[in-house]
Amino acid sequence: MAQTSIITGQYVCIHQTAATVVQRVIAWLIDMVFLYVAGLIAAIGVMPIVFSLEQETIAIVFTTLLTLSILSYPLLMEVFNHGQSIGKYLVGIKVASLDGSTPTLGAYLLRWLLLLIDWGFMGVGLAAIVFTKNSQRIGDLAAGTTVVKLPKQTRSINTYDLYFANNHYTPTYPEAAHLSLRQFNVIARTLLTQNEARAVNIIRLAEKTEKVLGVSNTTGNAELFLRTIYNDFQYYASRVV
Q1: FRET pair for 211, CA 20 to 30 Å: which of 20, 48, 100, 131?
Q2: Under the phi-then-psi rule, with left for phi > 0, alpha for psi from -120 to 50, and beta for the rest, what region is 136?
Q3: pLDDT tens-digit profile of 40-68?
Q4: Rounded-to-integer distance, Cα 74 and Cα 67, Å
């Protein structure tokens, strides 16, 4: 499968599996079926009432609103549903920025505006997905996004050894309080990631974290060190008033 490299700030490169052409097409077909059914229900239920009023203007307005709703569906779903339309959700894929952050509204808008080119000009979007490094259609290339597979099982961050919640917890590294939220999220994602590169990523991130904070790993274990930093940060963050 194609791999997309997502760079998380100044730390490590976390590899995620890019969605395949088949997965993206299936998601698109699911969305089309959903829109067709929803539009058909709306037309059958409302159009007779609209036309019975014998007001051509009302009929035009309703038709226009229905059309705009269908056209804006991909944009609205991705913006308000964390990069997933109904089709993407069911297939298990989502839109993500190449730098690992959540796409901005401008990025979502740009990839939506280029849908016409991607799907309307002899399959140029499909060709781009096949031949680009990060499996990007034209809209993705312009917006700096791609579509990635979601892991089948995702652990909640709240279940990750929250020793800081213990009233008797004593932090080891006060410097952890100086981490930015983005840096903390990098540590959390790296600890929760389950793939072949996990061990290497943890070692590299531990070394980077030592340099950034100006501390030494007194645990002798890279993963235990990052867990300690994780809990120390949470300890200090939970006591900010």
Answers
A1: 100
A2: beta
A3: 887 787 766 666 666 667 667 777 888 88
A4: 13
